[in-house]
From TrEMBL:
It comes from Piprites chloris (Wing-barred manakin). It comes from the Eukaryota. Gene3D superfamilies: Death Domain, Fas. The keyword ATP-binding does not apply. Residues 38-96 form the CARD domain. The chain crosses the membrane at residues 120-138. It is found in: Endoplasmic reticulum membrane; Mitochondrion membrane. It holds the Pfam family CARD. This is Caspase recruitment domain-containing protein 19. It is a single-pass membrane protein.
Amino acid sequence: QSYCHRLQHDMYFLTSTSRLNEQVVDKIILQLNRVYPQILTNEEAEKFRNPKASLHTRLSDLLKHLQKKGDRHCQEFYRALQINAEQLFNDLPSRKILKTPDPTEIDTDKEQYMLNDRGPVFFLACFSVAAGLALFWYCSNSDTKVVGRARRILGFSPIIIGRHVRNICMLYLEDISRD
């Protein structure tokens, strides 16, 4: 897409109220006037910096003038906008279209965020539940040798799990060993 088409697409966004203030527009005009290649002549720059005209009118006239001049002039306007109002430059509708990925393509950044939004506490909770279920399944086996081994493991468990959980597991193991 050419810069003139992009500028035509972004014109309403740029000229809407309170997007660009007068100081930023003046900086852009001065940059287009002073930087090589000179996009605006001195007369044109004075015309677009005229404080008697409203900011909306001056900005609309500037954008139309740049579109008539050609693609190179529009490109330099985008460069000046990026330098003087980077946040606004990033929010332009034409930039969002350029940033939009192919709908069939997987957005790896979004996928990574979706996988990692739970945090370490969630991981530890899931791991604890899985370890508890594995220990419960190991202890519920009818083999009495397994119960004796599990009792030895649970004897050292106050460090790993709380005393209340350990007492419940020990009572359960004693009930299984009686059967």
